Structures are given as structure tokens and as C-alpha cells.
């Protein structure tokens, strides 16, 4: 009996040993956590403020406006007087644009977009509808060279490419034929270098002719009445209200200017005269393009057609008739425009051969 009792007592585990082991494990865990936390705190750098300039937004603007003229021109591509005039036109003051400084990127981006929308609201003042009732002043000023054939012409159309950053899922569609990502921009202008139409936001791979078709069908392109037409380059078909040059013939003015001999045939005479008149849109694009060249590519994302339109509205803001007896298109078919072009070319060639002075005009 005593032997059995002594055996049971030997099998029982002491309670105090289990408690000591649990307490030891708890202390061990707490020590590891404390050591880990201390190591993390040592590695963590003290936070440094990002927006720590002593100048407020209005102070920075005043410093730039009142500083050297070259600084503000380099920063925003316009002179201080032009900036003040634009600020007055938009009803904004330096205090209203202070959000540009000492604020988060989200705030800056959001308000910058709002400002662009405001600028685009000025398009009706600077991008005006074509005038169908009078002969363009440039044509009247050079009557011997242009009016016999182009007094029904109301302007020129062309496209240009603006670098952009597309979304990853469809980036290839935005690669143009020069192998960089861009938006395709279609514009029309009068011969006094004023934009009369602007469409932006199409992929760089979109052909100019397709973009023009969609502009007419869906985006309110101002088609002229019968008897009026636009000049277009060889990227557009010679049809409807668009008069294009002859293909596979010299067209651009610099190539003619490098020649030592005169024009060789009726197609060259037509292309030379067509190019010299249509050159106005190249010069009109030149007003807005220097502003676009100041953009970093990241500043014109896909969908940023507002940025592009705003740029050309700014360009317009910064730079701010006799009887219609010439040859006119009779209908909108390709055959009719080809016939009209051939008639003009024949008359130009005959005049070119008969009057040597025409070679230098």
C-alpha cells in the first residue's frame, strides 16, 4: 500500500516548474520584440520636410515677374508683360495662382487642369470660324500670283504631332511613323495666320486623312459652301473641298529654292504656287510649337488634348475684297477636283512661259 502511494507521488509533475518555463518564454519574446524595435528605430531616418521654401506662392510669382526678363521667358515661354495681360484676361491674380507652390502634387495637377479648361473657354475668341464672304487679304495683296486661281480658297489644313506618354495597355497605337509616342493634331488656319479649327487627342499612328474624315463626321469641322476650298498637302486626297498638290513631284519650297534652274512643267508650277500659299499653316503652327517644345514629354499624357488645345489658344492670344472670279470647284467629287487642279496647272504653266517676271514672284 505504501509502495503504491509512493509510486503515484513520484509520477506527479511539480506545478512551479511549468510556471517558470512559461514566464521564461514570455520574457524571451518581449526581449526579442524590444531588440527588433530598437534596431528599426536606429535605421529609420528622421522625416525631412519637402515643401520648406521661405517664399510663399505670391512672393515667388512677384520675384519672377520683377526679375530678369530672360528668367520668366525661360520658365513659361512668355514675357512678363504678356503674362500680366493673360492674367488680367483670365481674371486671375498672383494670389489665385499661389497653389502652384507649397502644395501637394495632386492639388497642383487638379488645379492646373482647371486652369487649362478656363484657357480653352477662350477658344471662341481666338479660334474663329472661317470667313466665307471675302477674299483673303494675302491673296488680294499678291493678286498676280494667287488671285486668278485661289480667290475661292479660305485657308489651309495640316497635321502635327505632339509628344505624349500613353497608357501601357495601348502604347503601341500612339507610336507615329517617326517611332516616338505622340498625339496627332489636326488644324485649319486662314492666310492671316489665325486658327479656324483645332482637333487633338488622336493616336500618333492615326493617318491624317482618317483624322480629317472623322473631324468632318463627328467633330464639327467647318466645311465651306460650294465655290470655297482649303489647301492641303499630299497626305490628303484631292477631293471634296480640299485641293492637294500633285504627288511624285517636287513640292516643298526649300527644294525649289535650292535649284539653279526654273520650273520644268505645269505640275511643278502648280506645286510651287500651292506650297508658297499653303506655307501659312507651317508658320501658324510655329507660333504654338515653341510652347509645346518647352513641355517635358511627361507633361502631355494621353487624354491631354486639353493641354494641346490650350497651348494653341495661348499662341493665338500671345501673337495675336473684290469679286470672286477665280476657278471654283463645281462639286465635291474627286474627279471634279482633279479637273479643277489640271485647269489651274495649265493656266499657270501658260502664264509662267509667257511672263518671265512671274518666275520671281
Quantity of strands, as a count: 5
Estimated share of beta-strand residues: 5-15%
- Helix % is 40-55%
End-to-end separation: 138 Å
Number of domains: 2
Key features?
14 helices; elongated; alpha/beta; 2 domains; 361 residues; 5 strands; 5-stranded mixed sheet
What does the model show?
This protein is α/β, with parallel strands linked by helices and 361 residues long. It has two domains: 57-124, no CATH class; 128-360, no CATH class. Helix content is 50%, strand content 9%. It has 14 helices and five strands. The protein has helices at 2-11, 15-43, 57-65, 69-76, 80-90, 105-120, 123-126, 137-141, 143-150, 208-218, 253-257, 266-293, 305-318, 334-354, and strands spanning 153-163, 182-189, 195-203, 229-231, 242-243. The protein has a five-stranded mixed β-sheet with strand order 3-2-1-4-5, sandwiched between helices. Helix 6 crosses helix 13 (305-318), helix 12 crosses helix 13 (305-318) and helix 12 packs across helix 14. The termini are far apart. Residues 288-300 and 321-332 have low confidence and may be disordered.
Task: Describe, in short, the structure shown.
With 361 residues, the chain is α/β, with parallel strands linked by helices.
List the helices and strands and how they pair.
Blueprint (H helix, E strand, L loop, with lengths): L1 H10 L3 H29 L13 H9 L3 H8 L3 H11 L14 H16 L2 H4 L10 H5 L1 H8 L2 E11 L18 E8 L5 E9 L4 H11 L10 E3 L10 E2 L9 H5 L8 H28 L11 H14 L15 H21 L7
Helix pairs in contact: 6-13, 12-13, 12-14
Cofactor: a divalent metal cation
Subcellular location: Nucleus
Protein name: DDE Tnp4 domain-containing protein
